[in-house]
Design goal:
The complex is a heterodimer of chains A (472) and B (300). Chain A is mainly α. Helices cover 66% and strands 0% of the residues of chain A. Chain A has 2 domains: 6-184, no CATH class; 189-275 and 354-471, no CATH class. Classes of the chains: A mainly alpha (472), B alpha/beta (300).
Chain lengths: 472, 300
């Protein structure tokens, strides 16, 4: 079920009313959340519910056994079992064909032809998200950071919690799980903030991301015939598309959770106003960045040890983050490029220089230049993220820097620019706030209704698009 | 909680009311299809593809046909992509037909394309078009259509252009107003002919479509008289049709032995075409008069 669908428009209020008026006891509310989450996921493809249930059972059981055991090797064995099962499923469904094809291609490059055997595997929506979420539980229990759950329904609801099941934020057991034990009390302000987040998230998705998507698809499909300037516009639009799409989804997820009394972690913090690449990565897809930091970067040694080890750790985390996004070398390249961008400020130990939002109404010249530089670097790396292959990405770049064809005869795709500028303005004035539509009481009704009508204007049901991050 | 729900409901009321009101702005300018799904069930129908949609004018039929016919007739023909004979069109006709009558008149336009399928799709393409997407064919405003078939937002109804060259009349006739300057007609004709040369390569006779045409006619016969018609078209496209399907007329006559088949394909030069395929509206008027006269001769 998509957040921007009619089904969800009926599903959400139904569950909301049942949750607060019919199933008022904590135990019953958890059962309702569990059932509604499975309906939400099963709407896409019910067959894959078995995968979530399997992961849930495995990690519940392993968490329980981890608590009983004090024997170090046994505990390690249990942890590795969880890692093997969860990552095994992820690798099989997401990367099996990719590895096979890459293997065959590598031999073909050496002149050895191999018989190609790939399987027709469907990628279960959101598998990368819920796999990481269940893993965080097992690892935290193993490290004795949290107590294992004894209430299966609470755990199953945590794994499948529908607002963030398919595209995050990837929640930590230590933050979300305890909320399933605690009696939820309806809080007006909290629920209103949830509605505002949903509205803003839908606006980002439907008005910004989907409008850009049409242009981006057109430009990237025909990049060989487009001018350099159009190609530059293509990557700028893609930067807005992916931000609007993914942060829009996160906003809707967080907002929806608030309607049920849950507080999810923030996933985006105005990343395009970052002054350097390190700040960007602290503000972009925060739940994934911190997941990798805590469960991969720190265990590898983080920024401790020899310089060689530190550099290795930086590259590992960026490359793994790249491949997490999809089974394509383009994502690996994207991760590698970001690692290269990150490296200079890491070596100069300036990676924690900017930790707060910019003060003042306007940025200083150096802040402005920093923002522009970071945006350009990030946007450059999106070429690899968006292209079908590395070859396409390289040709796309070559075409941009071919100055003979840089200026087009006519500038197309420009109608959206005023919308993007207004959007940037809203984000800029709200950058110290949690979300971008904290408005003056006098005008807010007009704004909310305008936003709602704008969403409806752009929400052509026929061309309803899925969220980019569903595929990851 | 009460305050929250009241506020949300207040916002929703404003939004939903606006949306519902917008539905009343839908009319013959909305698109070439919408109005056809907003009328009540019909007693007599004109069926077929765009040649019939543009070329047969119910208003003229209604004024010239004998009173023994259960009038008025309603033009329920769409396009080759939307309404070739098949399950989708059959269901749409079934939903539009007033089952209480028994003396209706059904003008069923046929040509080689309407009983052919495309080889470049492994499914019937009309299932993904307007007729296949909706479930309600007879309600005004038709929100089902706006939600599932209309390609734009309902808010675009506020900005619809009345200077469009397409307009659907209340009797279902699709009026097309295009420049008939020789140079522009030639340009459109060349484009259309090129399109049909390509079509010839991808379309082929479909037993399945013939089956559904038979089924459609069986359905219509329960409620009145069926007349099969082949509407004239330009020389080049007729030539393409003849080479693609030389036995078409015989097949129709063989398959629908008991039905009247009015074949006007040889009257090419009698009429003017906007693009070498569709009758110009004034020719459509003349053709419809001829059709009414021939039908009257047969049903006297």
């Amino acid at each position: 079920m998509l957040f921007n669908s009619l089904e969800f428009l009926l599903f959400l209020p139904t569950i909301f009313l049942l949750y607060w008026f019919v199933f008022r006891q904590l135990k019953h509310q958890n059962i309702l959340l569990f059932v509604s989450s499975y309906i939400f996921y099963g709407w896409w493809d019910w067959r894959f519910l078995s995968l979530i249930l399997f992961s849930t059972l495995i990690d519940f059981f392993i968490g329980y056994r981890l608590n009983l055991s004090t024997h170090r090797n046994k505990r390690k064995f249990l942890l590795y079992t969880s890692l093997f099962v969860n990552l095994g499923l992820l690798v099989f469904f997401k990367y099996f064909n990719f590895f096979i094809e890459s293997w065959i291609e590598a031999w073909a490059d050496l002149g050895i032809q191999m018989h190609q055997t790939t399987l027709n595997i469907i990628l279960p929506v959101g598998i990368s998200f819920y796999t990481f979420q269940t893993l965080s539980y097992t690892i935290d229990v193993y490290q004795r950071k949290i107590e294992p759950v004894t209430n299966f329904m609470a755990f199953a609801s945590y794994v499948a919690f529908f607002p963030q099941l398919v595209a995050g934020p990837i929640e930590r057991a230590s933050n979300l799980l305890p909320q399933f034990y605690k009696k939820r009390i309806f809080n007006y302000e909290f629920a209103v903030s949830g509605m505002k987040l949903i509205l803003w998230g839908l606006l980002k998705k439907v008005v910004i991301a989907d409008s850009c998507a049409v242009l981006v698809n057109d430009i990237f499909q025909n990049y060989q015939n487009e001018s350099g300037l159009t190609l530059c516009m293509g990557i700028v639009y893609f930067s807005f598309q992916i931000y609007g799409d993914f942060s829009g989804y996160s906003d809707i997820a967080i907002g929806t959770s608030r309607l049920f009394g849950f507080n999810l972690m923030r996933n985006f913090d105005y990343p395009y106003f970052s002054r350097d690449i390190a700040e960007f990565w602290r503000r972009w897809h925060i739940s994934l960045s911190t997941w990798f930091r805590d469960y991969l970067y720190f265990p590898l040694g983080g920024s401790k040890g020899s310089l060689g080890n530190q550099l290795r750790n930086v590259f590992i985390i960026f490359l793994v983050s790249g491949i997490w996004h999809g089974a394509n070398w383009t994502y690996v390249a994207w991760g590698g490029i970001n690692a290269l961008f990150f490296l200079p400020i890491f070596l100069l130990k300036k990676n924690r220089k900017h930790t707060n939002a910019i003060e003042g109404n306007l940025p200083s010249l150096s802040e402005f230049l920093g923002i522009m530089k970071t945006y350009m670097l990030v946007t450059f790396s999106w070429i690899f993220f968006r292209s079908e292959s590395i070859k396409d990405a390289v040709r796309y770049i070559e075409r941009i820097i071919d100055f003979n064809t840089f200026i087009p005869n006519t500038i197309r795709h420009k109608k959206i620019i005023p919308f993007l500028l207004i959007f940037v303005f809203f984000e800029w004035i709200s950058r110290k706030q949690e979300y971008a539509i904290v408005l003056d009481k006098k005008y807010r009704i007009v704004f909310y209704l305008s936003f709602a009508f704008l969403i409806l204007y752009y929400a052509s049901v026929e061309e309803k698009t899925t969220f980019i991050y569903f595929q990851f | 909680m009460k305050k929250f729900i009241l506020k949300v409901v207040a916002y929703l009321v404003v939004i939903i009311t606006t949306y519902l009101l917008l539905g009343f702005l839908g009319d013959g300018y909305t698109d070439p299809f919408y109005l056809r799904f907003t009328t009540k069930k019909q007693n007599s129908l004109v069926l077929g593809t765009s040649r019939a949609a543009q070329g047969i004018q119910p208003e003229i039929l209604n004024s010239l046909l004998l009173d023994s016919v259960d009038k008025p007739l309603y033009n329920y023909a769409f396009t080759l992509l939307h309404s070739p004979y098949g399950e989708t069109y059959y269901n749409a006709i079934d939903a539009k037909l007033n089952k209480k009558i028994s003396n209706g008149l059904f003008i069923v336009s046929v040509d080689p394309w309407s009983i052919s399928s495309r080889s470049d799709f492994d499914y019937e393409i009309e299932t993904n078009k307007e007729l296949g997407k909706i479930s309600f064919y007879n309600c005004y405003p038709n929100y089902d259509y706006f939600m599932y078939a209309y390609p734009k937002s309902m808010f675009s109804l506020l900005f619809k252009k009345k200077d469009t060259n397409m307009f659907v009349h209340n009797d279902g006739w699709l009026e097309i107003n295009v420049s008939m300057k020789a140079a522009e007609v030639i340009k459109r004709t060349m484009f259309k002919e090129k399109q049909y040369i390509t079509n010839k390569e991808i379309y082929g006779f479909s037993e399945k479509r013939l089956f559904w045409l038979k089924k459609t006619i069986s359905l219509l016969k329960k409620h009145g008289r069926v007349i099969l018609v082949r509407i004239p078209t330009g020389h080049k496209i007729l030539k393409i049709e003849n080479s693609m399907f030389p036995d078409f007329d015989n097949l129709i006559e063989r398959s629908f032995n008991g039905e009247l088949y009015l074949n006007y394909k040889n009257l090419v030069d009698k009429y003017v075409y906007t693009d070498g395929n569709h009758l110009f509206k004034e020719s459509g008027t003349e053709f419809t008069k001829q059709l009414a006269k021939d039908i009257n001769n047969h049903i006297k």
